[in-house]
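To close the chapter, one final illustration. This time we ask the reader to focus less on the individual chains and more on the assembly as a whole: which components sit near each other, and how the overall shape emerges from the parts.
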Amino acid sequence: MSDDNSTVLEDDPGEPLSWLNPLRDPADRRLPRIAGPSGLVIFGVTGDLSRKKLMPAVYDLANRGLLPPGFSLIGFARRDWEDEDFAQVVHDSVKEHARTPFREEVWAQLAKGMRFVQGEFVDNDAFEKLRETIEELDKEQGTGGNFAFYLSVPPKFFPQVVQQLKAHGLADPPKGSWRRAVIEKPFGHDLASAKELNTVVHSVFPRDEVFRIDHYLGKETVQNILALRFANSMFEPIWNRSYVDHVQITMAEDIGIGGRAGYYDGIGSARDVIQNHLLQLMALTAIEEPASFHPKALVAEKLKVLSAVKIPRDLGRHTVRGQYTHGWQGGEEVPGYLEEEGIDPDSTTDTYAAVKLEINNRRWAGVPFYLRTGKRLGRRVTEIAVVFQRAPYLPFDSSATEELGQNALVIRVQPDEGVTMRFGSKVPGTSMEVRDVSMDFAYGESFTESSPEAYERLILDVLLGDANLFPRHQEVEESWKILDPIEAYWNKHGKPAPYESGTWGPAEADEMLARDGRSWRRP
Amino acid sequence: MKIDLTDTTSSKINSGLIEARRSIGAGAVGMVLTLVIVTDEGSAYDALKAAGEASREHPSRILAVISRPGRSPRARAEARLDAEIRVGSDAGTGETVLLRLHGELASQAQSVVLPLLLPDAPVVVWWPENAPENPSRDPLGALAQRRITDAVTAESPVEQLSTRALTYSPGDTHLAWTRITPWRSMLAAALDQRHAKVESAVVEGESYNPSAELLALWLASRLNVKVERVVSDGPGLTGVRLRTAGGDVTLDRNDGLLAKLSMPEQPDRMVALKRRDTAELIAEELRRLDPDDIYAASVRYGVEKLQRVGRSGGEVVEAQDGAESAQLPPAHPVASPTRTKATPRAAAPKPEPASESRAAEPKAAKAGERKQSGS
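The assembled structure is written out below.
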């Protein structure tokens, strides 16, 4: 049968090099992008991320008809499971966490391609079994040798896993197919370790086949920043130092470190959040218009911004770190960081970090970007607030504009995705009185396919090989160059400032802004 | 919350809407479009339910235009507008107004609807059934960027398809077309994997289901090959076969839920292909409001072909294959045995009023006559 086919191919010199599918047409926008035949291998499949995000995302993709027929999912973990046990676990987590309703027929389609491989990362037999499983799936499910390896494991195992993949020939795609690596943050803990990690991964997988997940970039609202800025004409003219006073980027969590003590202690919030999420949000807020939305064009612009970032000369006055203490958070009594299980009582790990950055280019010179993140803050919220300068002259009595603040445009990344504009409006009544009001665009209300989860989009992009929403290794390294001096300063000077759980961070952070004559927004 | 207005006007309805919104404490939330549903009392409930569900994805002002021309001369002489305003939890995520047009007003619906359209936002008109012959010339259709019809509800769906082709204007679209998006995307994905020239194709489905015809037309227009339409018992579409040199690519669905994709040299694979409900179809339809050129090309392809068969004096047997049978005479020898096998099946439901072959028959017959008289 295969012999027949090969002769047919040889006899047919007319087969074009690049196949143009006659059923596809750029004008046919109803047809979704469906990934080609492929499979996903998840290492650390028993973990939280895998159960709460990855598996439900795979199901949701299948339910929306975006996965290829015969899509296969291989779990790799230490647990002693059979394929059926694995399928049951996926079934349960899908039922509990999936966004779209559970449908038996979609499940039936998925379950046919589920396999489990049990083993340790040092176990050669297990990787041999993985190879056999992949080959078997190619035959049974028609995955065509295309596999993505999702490393949902602590970074210290990365070298081991990728070396094993290499040793067993799993990283070498058969002709005409691909093998991709997907890695999760943290991408190192400083510049040196990030470079080391990149070297390890790139020694096995080509640069273009390594996908770094920053799930923030998969969010609709984050992608909308670019649409807001570059598809409209009303924002761009004021998007510069002539009109913008400063920018505040906040990512607040109301939870503590939960069960992540082992990972979190020694890392801290700046490395955990600012280095990746907040610097990416800042880059998207500040970039110049890319020549196109090709990944290379976008990366070039982001790199320009990140390499133009200037950290303050006096780090003591313009950066703050904090640690949450015992308190009441949203009606619940919660322990302080040092009292959490598994935390060294003398730990100096930051659970709150705020830094002031500037971007040295013509558009942004002199406009501070304040980045802050923290755990156990008032509520869970992520937003970008572009705060504008006051009007140069107000033709009202001073008493009329007492309550008028600065105009602001707030991009609400999560929850309650949308855009808010703050501006002054006359209070109804006989006297002239101007007060701030909000105008809302709620993203959840308009256009959404009930807002796909970030992981859905990102997994689909990995299978399609679309690298636009994934930070490149250069970006990761540039981000560490920004954060490393700050971490080094913190290491030598002082301790994290304590703040009570459930508040908006330490008083030092408020003082940091007060020094510049500004104050934090209450998000 | 609900407000009933009897013997009212559009401006009173507008004030009613503002009042209703204020009383539930909501501002003019981000509604993205006005959806006008033209319907009768009988199907208003189902259509409103589907539109309400779709409004969760596309918050909209839904205007249901219900005509009650009246049965007696007396009722016809009286023109009256009754309205029911639903805002808040009663109306999905937007606002709904049911407009009951009595008497002479029934033919002047646009005068009621025009003042109630959201400013600037796009307008979509949907006829769940009894769509006008020419939607873009209809007074209500003329207000809209997008006009949604549905041949499934027509007495003779296939005939309606050719009417749609004749009167197509940019912005027209069709729920029978929306229904086949998952099929189309799966077939396109199959050809992404198998780089082979398709030589001919077969589409199987219920006799009275215009989606099968549209799918066949789409395949014919994209692949430029002969496409057979075979009638099966359903439900809905039951299968598609693309014939290529190395073997057939087939997509079979017998239960309306789970389909099997078979390709040469590859294992059979299961694909979930559920028949979607109206709310999902409307939601897909509202996702894009620009003209659907691919639909236009597909639906028009059929008409041209029918005419071509007529002019070139094709045989009656040729046309009985189905309305969309080959534009090019079947040069391929493989095609003929399958065709003869298919013909009796296709011919079987002919006595039914809704059979697809009827659309082709009169033209084919005429063609035959002309040929005879000419020769």
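The domain at 177-276+291-375 of chain B is CATH 3.30.360 (Dihydrodipicolinate Reductase; domain 2). Chain B has two domains: 2-149, 177-276+291-375. With these observations in hand, you are ready for the problems at the end of the chapter.
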